[in-house]
Amino acid sequence: MARTWQQRYDSARPSYTKVNDKKFADLEAGTSVLIPSPADIEHEIAEAEPGTALTLTELRHRLAERHDADGTCPVMCGMNLRIVAEVTFEALDAGVPAEQLTPVWNAVDPSSNLGTKLAARNPDLWPR
Question: Measured between alpha carbons, how far is 32 from 91 in angstroms, rounded to an integer?
Fold first, then answer.
């Protein structure tokens, strides 16, 4: 049976830091890399100034800084951002008011791959 987005969120590993063996994306070999949890991504978005739009790059920098790492894994950040976004949009689908949720729409560009998936699922719920 397929896991729900909430189950993925609940079963995710806590954030941890590792040292890169080799260069990966924009992260040099020998640097400390944060592998962020969905909960830490959600927390970082919630802590942003209301109405502030965060790019994925800004989100990665903030997470790395908070965890004293040189950088944040772009792949895991993107994957776990999707989990946070899907959980949020499922709550919106269930009738929870947007004001009571973490504003993931401030961290997901509507024209991005993830943004188009979320907007296409239920365009009326995109609170931008």
Answer: 35
User: Residue ranges per domain, the chain?
Assistant: 5-10+31-125
pLDDT (tens digit per residue) in 76-121:
999 999 999 999 988 988 889 988 999 998 888 878 888 888 766 6
Per DSSP, the chain holds a count of helices (H) and strands (E) of 5, 3
Residue among 68, 67, 66, 48 nearest 108 (CA): 48
d(C-alpha 73, C-alpha 56), whole Å: 11
- What is this structure's pTM? 0.90
Strand order in the sheet with 32-35: 16-19, 32-35, 71-72
Nearest to 72 by CA among 114, 108, 37: 37
Q: CA-to-CA distance for 1 and 76, rounded, in angstroms?
A: 23
Contact 26, 71 (CB under 8 A): yes
**Is the separation of the CB atoms in 102 and 88 below 8 Å?**
yes
Tokens (6 digits) for 107:
């961290």
